[in-house]
Design brief:
Elements: E1 4-9, E2 15-16, E3 32-37, H1 48-57, E4 73-74, H2 79-84, E5 89-90, E6 94-98, H3 105-116, E7 122-126, H4 131-140, E8 148-151, H5 156-166, E9 170-174, H6 191-208, E10 211-216, H7 229-233, E11 236-241, E12 248-256, E13 264-270, E14 273-276, H8 280-284, E15 291-293, E16 295-302, E17 305-317, E18 325-328, H9 332-346, E19 353-358, H10 371-383, E20 386-388, E21 391-393, E22 396-397, E23 403-404, H11 409-418, E24 423-427, H12 431-435, E25 442-446, H13 449-457
Parallel strand pairs: 6-10, 6-11, 7-8, 7-9, 9-10, 18-19, 21-24, 24-25
Antiparallel strand pairs: 1-2, 1-3, 4-5, 11-12, 12-13, 13-14, 15-20, 16-17, 17-19, 22-23
Helix pairs in contact: 5-6
Length: about 450
């Protein structure tokens, strides 16, 4: 049959016979890309015998007969990385690792490959670097080459044939955007090629119980390059965050079928590669004085792990007619709400003041339980009241000025105790939960902002 031209949405993979300005499936604008395809021949008159033979080849397992053990997970010497995976890399799992260029994706994967080789052969497929370049990087990371094999290949059909014949335990693909299927006319990196190559990888992983790591590029707005369907096809999506100029990198789990989502692992970029930071709370709280004005600590929850972060605030007179709200590491809209609550309920005029809020270290806070700590830091600056750096605050604020209940409070309090904190502000609505257990911390219960202001005036 003659070749035909079709259009695919680069966001969701929707197929259309003609170009459209807006995708009818996902609503994305200007997302359709033209792709040349060879239609498959449709064979008519398929006999019932051939249908029956194909059905006999299909393997079906009853749920109770499926065997699974914890030994089916591969572990590395990096505890934080294994925790992110849900306890280790599962056999047949496909993990997509994304991040900005140069952030350390290839470095970390080469380091974990050095651990996975203890379970069997590891294959590193590179479409961006030569074997000599990879070996040079491996020697810098002090990685021995035994059990790690390098393939400089981009045709997924050749890769498929080799992997199926050799059956390594773990395969690393760097990167999916460089692979192509030679049976198709489109070039590598197009949505169709990315989708088809990923389908082949998932097929190998599930059929032969081979685990895969796939490196993916991201676009300027931080999205994975290629069709949105790519993220749905894999089992887990990990994203590297952090500026190249910063000392550390954050690996965040955005999707995980076999573990918790929104987990994060913190690594430091050093001369000999990535080094995990196990006690990240101490790292983020370094270089703090005993008492500070405009500084407050909050235990936030990222997945199943608690991190202690510092919130800093600064208030100055506005030099122009429109006051500024400069925010780093916190939701700017949330700051607008908190300042509105402070003006309405506490009669504190912030409308003509420049307000600066920062979370040192570069980590972004999304946990609403940080509201109380942020507002306390703002009030501390406005009133000039210093706060002990051994006191933390936990609580979400409502528009009526009430301090609302927070969840997983026990984990947060235990982390504060472990790092030597002496007191914590918590919502009154959490009292029954807290009184069931004994804590070394001085628990200060608050119902609303009036009680908070009263305690701050007493410097309590």
């Amino acid at each position: 049959m003659a070749k035909g031209s079709v259009f695919y949405c680069s966001e969701c993979g929707y197929k259309s016979a003609k170009w459209a300005g807006k995708c009818p499936q996902c609503g994305a604008w200007s997302s359709f890309e033209e792709v040349e395809e060879m239609p498959k021949d449709v064979k008519k008159g398929t006999s019932s015998i051939s249908v029956a033979s194909r059905a006999s080849d299909i393997k079906v397992y009853e749920f109770k007969d499926v065997e699974y053990s914890k030994e089916d997970r591969y572990k590395t010497k990096y505890e934080e990385f294994d925790r992110l995976l849900g306890g280790g890399l599962l056999k047949g799992e496909v993990v997509l690792v994304t991040g900005n260029p140069g952030i350390g994706k290839s470095t970390l994967l080469l380091q974990v490959a050095n651990s996975y080789k203890e379970y069997g052969d590891v294959l590193y497929i590179s479409g961006e670097e030569s074997p000599a370049q990879i070996k040079n990087r491996g020697e810098r990371l002090k990685i021995s080459g035994d059990g790690i094999y390098i393939m400089a290949e981009m045709d997924i059909l050749n890769i498929y044939e080799y992997v199926v014949s050799k059956k390594p335990k773990v395969v690393i693909v760097d990167s999916i955007q460089t692979l192509y299927n030679s049976s198709m006319d489109s070039i590598s990196g197009t949505p169709t090629q990315i989708r088809e190559c990923t389908l082949k990888i998932v097929e190998i992983a599930k059929k032969y119980n081979i685990s895969f790591f796939i490196v993916g590029h991201i676009t300027k707005d931080g999205k994975v390059a290629g069709p949105k369907l790519l993220e749905h096809m894999v089992d887990a999506v990990f994203n590297f965050e952090g500026d190249e100029g910063l000392y550390y990198r954050i690996l965040r789990s955005e999707k995980n079928r076999f573990g918790s989502t929104n987990e994060i692992a913190v690594f430091s970029m050093e001369e000999n590669g990535m080094k995990e930071i196990k006690n990240s709370s101490e790292y983020f709280l370094s270089e703090r004085e005993e008492k500070n004005i405009g500084s407050m600590v909050v235990p936030i929850l990222e997945g199943t792990k608690v991190f202690l972060l510092e919130v800093q605030s600064l208030i100055t007179d506005s030099g122009v007619g429109i006051p500024r709200r400069v925010v780093q590491g916190y939701d700017r809209n949330r700051i607008q709400i908190l300042t509105a609550i402070a003006e309405k309920k506490l009669y504190i005029p912030l409308g003509m003041k420049d307000l600066f809020v920062n979370v040192p270290g570069g980590l972004a806070i999304e946990d609403p339980a940080a509201d109380l700590a942020v507002l306390i830091s703002i009030l501390s600056v406005y009133k000039g009241v210093s706060i002990s750096q051994k006191i933390a605050a936990i609580g979400e604020l409502g528009l009526r000025g009430e301090i609302r209940k927070v969840f997983f409070l026990e984990r947060r309090l235990k982390e504060l105790e472990k790092l030597g904190f002496t007191g914590v502000y918590v919502p009154e609505s959490n009292r029954k939960e807290i009184e069931k257990k004994k804590y070394k911390l001085k628990i200060i219960y608050l119902k609303n902002l009036d009680e908070l202001l009263e305690r701050m005036n007493k410097n309590d």
